[in-house]
Protein 1
Amino acid sequence: MTFDGTFNPAAKIALFIDGENLHLTAKALGFDLDYRKLLEEFQGRATVLRAFYYTTIVADQEQQSSIRPLVDWLDYNGFTVISKSAKEHVDTSGRRKVRGNMHVELAVDAMALAKQLDEMVLFSGNGDFQPVVEAVQRRGVRVTVVSTIATSPAMAADELRRQADSFVDLVDLRSKCAWGPSSLRTPNPQR
């Protein structure tokens, strides 16, 4: 499905961006995202009430983290950044592992905002979000999922695509939101 602008210009929408998932999806497609262009693309199609960006940050590397400049930039440029420290542990082999996700936070925000929305745009292909999509739809909100099936394996879970009211392949948004010469006015947010 190509992104054909099917939003009603008067529709109230919110963007829910699973930061790590969207970053990995764009990388798998071979491009970096320009978040300013991405936000402008959706602001040109409907009334964007909120643009949430969810990410975890490794606590001991917070100041040096490669994501810190992006998080700061997003925070000052129209996005509501929701972050938390990732949890570290040592596995049975003695290797340091970092884990963490923002699924619960995204789900809570989606349910809290649902009564004010006409449409939710979820930037994630993670099948764990299928129950959230279903719950938001029961409140009368249409849901568009943005991910990709153009990679092998697909980054978008089949159950999530089936549950969504519409699916937009990120590859179809590439010309509108990829980092490139026309976006030199923006810092290069890589994630």
Protein 2
Amino acid sequence: MRPVTVLKVGGSLARSDAAARLLRALAERRISDLLIVPGGGEFADSVRTAQARQALSDGAAHHMALLAMHMLAIALADLAPACVLAEGPEQFDAAWRSGNTPVWLPASMVLASADIPASWDVTSDSLAAWLAGQVDAKHLVLVKSGTLSVDGRDVRALTDAAIVDPCFARFVEGRRFEWQVVSGVEAALQALSNTGE
């Protein structure tokens, strides 16, 4: 079993150069067994707007939000060498065997699962946690752009502060992987260095 670390790169990081700095730093450090989950960022914000304006169903908005994550995944994979797009476990393994870092395209896995409600209560944070369970990850690190006002390991405080979505607790409580929420590039790199200890 690989000691996989799932790293969720918040879409808000892509609103500045933070996502690019993080991806390039990861490429320089050549961190093995890393699996990157993109947020939805401004692409998901567009879906929220479209749903409200056009009265789209939750199912349609859910599918569109997953495709928003696809769009950010393509952008993230383009930011650093050795990042490759991957839809599921076989492609993750192929990437790792080739010395690459997979960036998850979530739609096929998520749409095939009955575990995930089609709701804005499930964002890329919960999807990253769900994926960590699916790949039997050892660690999950969520990287946010804003300053954390609460303990990054306290799921109730994070939920109450709207730092993670309302369903996040469901996907992390009682799981075997360790997890934390951090803010910014340096904190993310520090958290990843700690996962190797």
Protein 3
Amino acid sequence: MLGIAVTYSTRDGHPLDVTNLRQGTDFMATVKITNPGKRGYYEQMALTQIFPSGWEVINTRLMESDSAFHNSPFTYMDVRDDRVYTYFNLEENKTHTYNVLLNAAYLGHYYLPAVNCEAMYDNTIQAFLPGKWVDISTK
């Protein structure tokens, strides 16, 4: 049992519908993972976020504004061109929040893959949200 929720917002926190974005828009994906406490402490969790090829991941660790986007504690975060892998432990009845800054870079129609979180060594602890189609336009 694991809870997962994803929201998208502008850089100043206003909700954003990512199914139709204007090219050049900076925005944030926020994932909240919740341990309902029914099975104790969750160890070695892996959050997988893969983004459409029209979106660019903005690696805030390379910028001086890294602290502007607070993330919950994690063991390791692997930031790549089109995806972010986050590894962490999650205490009972706690929620962790992870943010990724993105840019709608390239015009087109793309598929946003599912967001997945699971315990790496216990396949009974997992949650995912299905993917959807997204567009980037000049409007």
